[in-house]
Amino acid sequence: MSKRIAGPEIERLIQLLAKVPGLGPRSARRAALYLIKKKEQLFAPLSAAMSEALEKVRLCSVCGNVDTSDPCTVCTDPRRDGATLIVVEDVSDLWALERAAAMSARYHVLGGTLSPLDGVGPDDLNIKGLISRVAEGGISEVILAVNATVEGQATAHYITDQLTGLNVKVTRLAHGVPVGGELDYLDEGTLAAALKSRTAF
Amino acid sequence: MSKRIAGPEIERLIQLLAKVPGLGPRSARRAALYLIKKKEQLFAPLSAAMSEALEKVRLCSVCGNVDTSDPCTVCTDPRRDGATLIVVEDVSDLWALERAAAMSARYHVLGGTLSPLDGVGPDDLNIKGLISRVAEGGISEVILAVNATVEGQATAHYITDQLTGLNVKVTRLAHGVPVGGELDYLDEGTLAAALKSRTAF
Questions:
Q1: Domain that holds residue A27
Q2: Alpha-carbon gap: A198 to the closest alpha carbon of chain B (Å)
Q3: Toprim domain location, by residue (chains A, B) (predicted)?
């Protein structure tokens, strides 16, 4: 804005809102104005929820998930199958798999993938924690639910090597046609994998 | 989420973020996770900016703008032309006109438009404040920058009637082709107005 039209507190709020993914400079202005208008219904509760979450949020020392308790809600849930461990790159992957609601297992969040070009080595990821969790026993299967990218697959290979000799089954997600997907739009690699892993009808 | 995967503070933050315009349930999750990851760089400053703005924000008693001071930054700016008053429906319109940076005038925010069907009458808008500002003198022109909708135009007519006898020039925004607009996509009303108000080339 060429000229100041609002106090510095409002301009700062807009600047920071614009950095939230999903909002840009324009929608941040719109969001700030909406919040100011819905002061009691939304602005006040949101501000309180932010302060509270900010104060309480922490990393789970067991699995690397983010939560407001340590160990986290997933790690302390007694109904989950403790013998299966799903390894994911990021907390967002954990949340995505939970939305699928296909398994009731525990998780281990790596916090990224091996990427030598970016200077990310095994010590920068939560891999040691994974090895010691498995070494403690009680886990029969480790599912590597990393992304199907070069970095993700390299990380999966590294972890598989590290787990050798620990008497645990290591599996990975199936490759294939996404549910609702059209063959015409799929790449050759996916189609080849789907053909290779075909199942009885 | 079918099963609790995070503490109630995080779920509440996601629920409230989802009500911010521009964010939905999916992007609210993504935004919450991003905030948690950028705890020091974004989450903490944003939370502080929200608390501060929430505490300080108020309506300007002169013009109806929202700001952290009363009278607001626009009303107290000594460089603005106090003889011209731009009447807008909403604070967002004030901000939009300021971005155009075409005039350095003062504003008056109505807070909506007359809408008998929704039960919005003259007393529900900041019209009395406008009349008394003009009656106090010192204002030579009132620009009615209301939306080009039926309600906006009805409100403009009502205000013009109220201002009769107060010795002030009442103008409205020009109708015409938007800058960068293509004639082919414009409605007949706009084209007719643009032809009627044609200017020398």
A1: 8-56
A2: 31
A3: 83-178
Taking an 8 Å cut-off on Cβ atoms, the answer to whether A35 and B20 are in contact is: yes
User: Is B61 contained in some domain?
Assistant: no
Same domain, A89 and A164: yes
Residue in B57, B65, B93 to test binding to A, most A beta-carbons within 10 Å: B57
Q: Which residues of A fall within a CB distance of 8 Å from B42? A: 16, 19-20
Same domain, yes or no, for B150 and B109? yes
Within chain A, strands assigned E span: 58-59, 66-67, 81-88, 105-109, 141-144, 169-172
Residue ranges, chain B, pLDDT below 50: 1-2
In A, minimum Cα distance to B9 occurs at: A53
CA distance B72 to chain A (A): 7
* Residue B32: CATH number of its domain: 1.10.8.420
Give the one of B36, B45, B68 whose C-beta lies nearest to A57's C-beta. Answer: B36
pLDDT digits (tens, 9 = 90+) for A43-83: 999 999 999 999 999 999 999 999 999 999 999 999 999 89
Residue A148 lies in a domain: yes
Give me the CATH number covering residue A128. Answer: 3.40.1360.10
Domain shared by B127 and B101, yes or no: yes
CB contact under 8 A, B98 and A3: yes
Enumerate residues 6+ apart whose C-beta is below 8 A from B46.
A13, A16, A17, A19, A20, A50, B35
Q: Could you tell me if residue A128 is inside a domain?
A: yes
User: Would the pLDDT of A4 be above 80?
Assistant: no
Q: What is the pLDDT of residue A1?
A: 42
Q: How many CA atoms lie within 13 A of A58 on its CB side?
A: 11
pLDDT in tens, B70-129: 999 999 999 999 899 999 999 999 999 998 888 899 999 999 999 988 999 999 999 999
Q: What is the residue whose two structure tokens read 């084209």?
A: B191
Task: Check CB contact under 8 Å for B39 and A52.
Answer: no
For residue A192, tell me if it sits in a domain.
no
Helix (H, G, I), strand (E, B), or coil: what is residue A105? strand
